[in-house]
Amino acid sequence: MSDFLVATSPDLTGYVSLVKVGIVVLLTFGWAYSAQWVDRDTDVVKTRREYWNVIVLSGGLVAFFVLLVAPWEGNLFAGGVLVWAAIAGGAIVAYLFHRNARVTLDNRVWTIGHLKRLLSGSGKKVVSDKGMRVEIEDHDGKHAGLPDEAEEGRDFDAVQDFLFDVLWRRASDVEVVPTKERYRVVYKIDGVAEEQEDGLSLEAGERVLRFLKKTAGLNVEEIRRPQSGKISCGLLSEGGKLGDTDIRTSGSMAGERLTLKVRTGPVLVRLPELGLASKRLETLTALIAQSKGLVLFCAPPHHGTTTTQYSVLKSHDAYINNIHSLERDPLMDVDNVTQNAFEGANTDVNFARSLQSVLRREPGIVLVDNCEDHETALIAARAAAENRKMYMGLEAKDCFGGLSQFMKLLNDNELAAKSVIGIVGQRLVRVLCKDCREAFVPDAATLKKLNLPADKIEQFYRPPTEPQLDRKGRPILCKNCRGSGYFGRTGVFEVLTVDSAVAALIKEGAPMSRIKPQCRKNKMYYLQEEALLKVIDGTTSMKEVLRCLGDGK
Q1: Is residue 454 part of a domain?
Q2: 486 phi and psi, to 5 degrees?
């Protein structure tokens, strides 16, 4: 009986190879471990987590399907393993190339340098938990690499998180303000202040302060007196292009306060790219073409008059014109323009006398960044009336406010009428993000209030009113605007040309209530009308126009 049972028992080794099963199990565990590492690492290097999870998971499933379903008999099984490695491993390798391109050499994995560090044990010295996502250079231009000490590593990680968020969100100004519970963090993005909901914990804030002060060359022990320094930083995911960042600290009753000014590198904008409507561009171009006269640029602070003036200067041929500027704080270097920086408190010569000194060099074209006193206005007006082209800035809400202010400063209506040939008023408005803006039909009452024909306006645009959510109910930020609804800014311009009729009114000292109708007869568009045109064409939103033109901020 026992012989019968033995004879009828199946030989399992003929159907299943324990070696092959073991290999499949090892491959499964190896792939699962690698997939989990990819999932965690995407958060470290701040790349698209769901995207890479899908690629790695799909690669693994396809590989196992091919390995288990295809008839890899005998020696062909080794070929099946190679096919599995090519498919499943290929997805992992693709991620490795992607993530290594986003980090510095010291933080790349499975490279020759990484393997050498592991074998030599030197890799254990790197104590940063999150690696490097922001490249930083200190005040001397030296690269701030990964630290070796544990405490410095924690400071480094805190600064990496902080600066990554600042640069990723495109913040131009940052205020870190201490309170008893935490550090409040306020960003200015596209000219609008926005407080970050969570801010920084007290520990993280102190680490950020300590690291940035040290990197900017400031006294770490000094927490009361104001200090200022500079670093350079840039996102590795954007090629590590570095921009200067001004670091300022000061004491307060609650603790030390930190201010950052991120200078991503202002770009000289060509005149047609400023945002001028085509007719206004033609009018301004005609003013620029005149050989002499004074053009005033009027706007509230931080609304782009300096950028506009630089664009106007660059529209002149610098090889046949001697171009100078007098500026309190030059925004950037302008090629082929002699830029004179006014030293202010560091000199006994006032601004007007500095302008006189510039004019003695016989320039044909002169830019004056901002007029604040009678003497400066008088010198500029006389030069423009005689034989020079002058451009001057004024802090005013619009063209008419600027003209009124200049006439009061000059206190010579005849000279004003003789010198001023044009005035440019401007504001900066945020541009709606084209990736997530939302179309809507405005109600008839709104259109009637704006004096717009309801039958000709099909739709306006606005930022998204409802956030998109992922499967777990978390908001999905737009990859272009980072959830703000806007990306960048553009100018809204009005241009006033001083013809003979307007000049006559200026000469007699007429009020703006008389000058304004004459400008309307000359087909001048006002700022509000120019802004509405940008709402109609979808460039910006009605809410943004009301914000910018309502209070001038």
Answers
A1: no
A2: -130, 155
Query: The pTM is what?
Result: 0.73
Residue 548, in any domain of the structure: no
For 308, the token pair is 């506009």
Give the amino acid at 89: G
The encoded tokens of residue 108 equal 């790349």
Q: Are strands 365-368 and 389-395 parallel, antiparallel or unpaired?
A: parallel
Has residue 436 been placed in a domain? no
Q: State the Cα angle at 551 between 549 and 553, rounded to 5°.
A: 85
Residue 387 phi, psi dihedral angles, 5° rounding: -155, 15
For 40, counting Cβ atoms within 10 Å of its Cβ (0-12 exposed, 13-18 middle, 19+ buried), the class is exposed
Q: Are residues 259 and 275 in the same domain?
A: no
Residue 137 lies in a domain: yes
Closest by Cα among 38, 175, 48, 10 to 95: 38
Query: Rounded to an integer, what distance in angstroms lies between the CA atom of residue 116 and that of residue 354?
Result: 62
Residue 83 DSSP SS3: helix
**Are the CB atoms for 294 and 381 separated by under 8 Å?**
yes
d(CA 103, CA 234): 12
To the nearest 10°, report the CA torsion of 215, 220, 225, 229: -10
Cα distances (angstroms) measured from residue 129 to each of 45, 73, 97, 103, 135: 11, 46, 20, 13, 16
Is residue 249 within 8 A of residue 258, CB to CB? The reply is yes
287 and 399 share one domain: yes
Residue 497 sits in the same domain as residue 520 = yes
pLDDT by residue, tens only, the chain of 553 residues: 444 444 444 554 445 577 777 777 888 888 888 888 888 888 766 677 888 888 988 888 887 777 777 666 666 777 777 877 888 888 888 888 888 877 656 667 777 777 766 666 554 444 566 678 899 999 998 988 878 777 888 899 999 999 999 999 999 999 999 999 999 999 999 999 999 988 999 999 999 999 999 999 999 999 899 999 999 999 887 765 788 899 999 998 889 999 999 986 556 789 999 999 999 999 999 999 999 999 999 999 989 999 999 999 999 998 889 999 999 888 888 888 999 988 776 667 889 999 999 999 999 999 998 998 999 999 999 999 999 999 999 999 999 999 999 999 999 999 999 999 999 999 999 999 999 999 998 888 888 888 888 778 888 999 998 878 777 777 888 889 988 899 999 999 999 999 999 999 999 999 999 999 999 999 999 999 999 999 999 999 999 999 998 754 5
Give the torsion sign (CA, 186, 188, 192, 198): negative
DSSP count for the chain of H helices, then E strands: 18, 17
């709606």: which residue's tokens?
Answer: 432
Q: Which domain holds residue 319?
A: 271-428+489-533
Question: Rounded to whole angstroms, what are the CA distances from 343 to 326, 338, 376?
Answer: 10, 16, 16
Number of domains the chain is built from = 3
End-of-domain residue from the set 244, 263, 282:
263
On the 0-12 / 13-18 / 19+ scale of CB atoms within 10 A, 261 is: middle
